[in-house]
Sequence to fold (416 residues):
Amino acid sequence: MDQNKPSQDTSKITPKVTACRRILSQVTATSVVILLYLSLGMVIGFPAILIPAVTNDDNADNLHLTMAQASWCASLSFIFQPVGGIMTGLCLQSLGCKAVMILLNIPHIVCWLMTYYASSIYTLCFAQAFFGCVLGLIEVPGLRYVSEISEPSVRGIIISSTSFFVSVGYLIMIFIGSLTDWRNAAAISASLPLLCIILLILIPESPMWLMSKGRSEDALRSLQWLRGWTSAQMVHEEFQRIKFYSKNKTQKFLKTDHSCDSRSGSGGLSYFMTSAFLKPLSKCCILFAIFDFGGMISFRSYLVKILQDLHSPVSSKWSSLWVALFGILGNVGCMLFIKKVKKKPMLRISLLCCTLCLIFLTMFLLGYMRVIADSAFHHWCPLIMIVALFFFYNLGIHPIAWAFLGEILPYRGRQL
Fold:
């Protein structure tokens, strides 16, 4: 053996990161963000336990509302939700996803405490309106963060998991409401945003946002963390792609600004009028129009009350738990099949089945299904239709709408 032959320097060889470790780091960061969506689901589910409690004539609490007052109180959160969305768009690009997610948990805690100590309808309504702003604030930063830190191979599953945990949060709130009163449910819920603040401090900021702010070293460290706690050498290729993308987008932005200033003085706003932005935005708007006007918002807020009025064969509280559970199963189905079946076929199946459920439920309630109405099955029919509606809604429409928002919108337009 030639003793003079230079030996290979093994100290510079970096072990390859396994796929499991790469995914684990992304799941770790995502799991912290997912707590926000768990909290979001609890906010959505809270009116479902609040309305029956405060409108009940046998209510032992000192706060009692008429059905009209309770309806307005529950609606305020959705009326003020766009306000929170606008506020998010204004501060997201300047502060970054991580900072916004940390800060928004503070008003979230305040909302729950205001609800717990509410002694009048005005305090309760103000808290619900404040909740609406928080709802708008929560939705976008978490979704944008998840879409930017995850690799394409797992992005669809991870984004669809956010909808899964919204449904889990909804189920948790219904379950808490079946065990205790609405004030204690609010107090318990306040602990989750506090936990979010602590855990969010431990995860890195999005490399894409850091690079857009010229913080390339921080972006590299963040990418190392998110790709399996590895070395700079192992993420060099992806880091260069992010760097090129950020530089290319910046040059296009400056070029657009210069050309717009010379023509109309409108600045970078002209980008939002281009087909590159308007085409994906129109697709997202159509999906969210179906998402918002499909009736599920009302079903979720008034679920317990609806089941009471329909004389469900099972206790309304336990029926609502089963409905929420089947919604979760729909989310699980989406996560399992979205990669194999693809988004568009699953969306079509979901839309078709939800439409059929609503048609059959409407026909039954209007008395057009006499065969079923005259049988022993008639008490179960509305419950089965509502269970199926929640299942198919969470199988496609709900998670895929958010997945499209995170995947097809250009980076520059995501804060809008």
About this structure: The first helix runs from residue 19 to 55. The chain is about 75% helix and 0% strand. Confidence is low (pLDDT under 50) at residues 1-13, 253-267. The two ends are 67 Å apart (CA to CA).
